[in-house]
Amino acid sequence: MRIAMIGTGYVGLVSGACFSEFGVPVTCVDNDAGKIERLKRNEMPIYEPGLDALVASNVAAGRLSFTTDLTAAVAAADAVFIAVGTPSRRGDGHADLTYVHAAAREIAAALQGYTVVVTKSTVPVGTGREVLRIIRETRPDADVDVVSNPEFLREGSAINDFMRPDRVVIGCDSTRAKEVMRELYRPLYLNETPIVFTTRRTSELIKYAANTFLATKITFINEIADLCEALGCDVQDVARGIGLDGRIGAKFLHAGPGYGGSCFPKDTLALVRTAQEAGAPLRIVETVVNINDVRKKRMADKIEKAMGSVKNRTIAVLGLTFKPNTDDMRDSPSLEIIPALIAKGAKVRAFDPEGMAEARKLLPQSVVMCEDAYDTMQDADALTILTEWNEFRALDLKRVKSLLKAPVMIDLRNIYSRAEMLAAGFHYTCVGRPPIASVPA
Question: Residue 302 domain-assigned?
């Protein structure tokens, strides 16, 4: 059994490396020659804990390779995975399937013998059918089945998610294709991982439904956080109180500045558009999208309220990526909050453990990029935490106070204890919990 993985982005590279760890020979293909050369030197295009070591070990074992030669990789493969980008299409919010369709055409021209073509990219319902149509149109003689196998990888813990998943979803309409997929995932059968076999269309919908539900859960607790602030309640206690209910669960009940990243923003919007066109609009999801967009913009107002005014004042910002353990800046709250603060007249000093390179491309040039967390605080009027990286969870509060002009912290991830901040003499503002103001110690 051999795999060709088309696309070496987040999904393709992680999936290819993990399949090779299962013992399956994998060839990862990309049309970016520079990227392929860097991968051959074990230079990762993304930050994902443990990925460089996983890639290196499987390349050394001869199970994982990288190439720009799609034709050769596909011709030798029993299964070809399409793992290319599906960004939001400008103008209407639908998933842009340009890269998926282009990959299908190239794959079709290179097929040799029976092959299972698998859509690993997140794609709307009906995409598998269109991929099959394109292949048939290009190669009427092709002996091929098209399967949907959506990914459920969380950035920062993707390797564990692939190796020890909650479930694997496979959508196929052929017994022959089902057996190929069963063989590829055989190591997970031994671990008794639930494998959900369903139709291709249903599989495509499962991915969107899962991400949309999680985005809805985040948005729900964020709205409850606003209510907590209005009523003087504690959202963390509320989250614990409802999360202990087995029907609800504790995950994704952490109030913050809104969701971002490569999946939730585009997938919620794509599902909204799909539902509208199908004549079955998803009113809850439409509301989730709108609330999240507004929330990120409102966080700058929250910071301004905590400081009294931000005009001509310097704000130290810790965390720029949409979540910790990734360098991904896509739809990160920082991309809304920092420009809004600058528009209000603030000066911003910022640091992120892994996101600095991307941040320099995406944030205003006036943002001062700093060497470390404490460097951001030098003579700043307040400290704001936007991303809950572990290294920000145990800051030396005495040192923080000595660097800041005033002991003001706005913690948009609720990573500090209110009692601790009171004892340390900070004016502390968080999310969904009453602010505290104390006389500096």
Answer: yes
CA distance 316 to 440: 19
Shared domain check, 301 and 272: no
Task: Report how far apart the first and last C-alpha atoms of the chain are (Å, whole number).
Answer: 67
Classify residue 343 as exposed, middle or buried by CB count within 10 Å of its CB (0-12, 13-18, 19+): exposed
To the query of whether residue 228 is one of the catalytic residues in this protein, the response is no
Number of structural domains, the chain?
Answer: 3
Question: Do 277 and 295 lie in a common domain?
Answer: no
Ramachandran quadrant class, 248 (left: phi over 0; alpha: psi -120 to 50; beta: rest)? alpha
| Residue 161: pLDDT over 80 | yes
Judged against a pLDDT cut of 60, whether residue 378 lies above it is answered with yes
One domain for residues 72 and 149: yes
Q: Is 176 contained in some domain?
A: yes
The pLDDT of residue 86:
93
The DSSP string of 40-96 is HTT--SS--TTHHHHHHHHHHTTSEEEES-HHHHHHT-SEEEE----PBPTTT--B-
Answer yes or no: are the C-beta atoms of 190 and 22 closer than 8 Å. Answer: no
Q: Residues 335-347: pLDDT tens digits?
A: 999 999 999 999 9
The two structure tokens encoding residue 279: 């004549």
- 345 and 310 share one domain: yes
- The identity of residue 25, as a single letter, is P
Residue 110 within a domain:
yes
Residue 278 lies in a domain: yes
Give the predicted TM-score (pTM) of the model: 0.92
The per-residue pLDDT for range 184-237, each reduced to its tens digit, is 999 998 888 999 999 999 999 999 999 999 999 999 999 999 999 999 999 999
Reported as a single tens digit per residue, the pLDDT across 308-342 is 999 999 999 999 999 999 999 999 999 999 999 99
Judge contact between 94 and 270, C-beta under 8 A.
yes
> Which residue of the set 18, 263, 370, 430 is catalytic?
263
Looking at residue 182, what is its pLDDT? 95
Which residue range is the domain that position 232 belongs to? 208-282
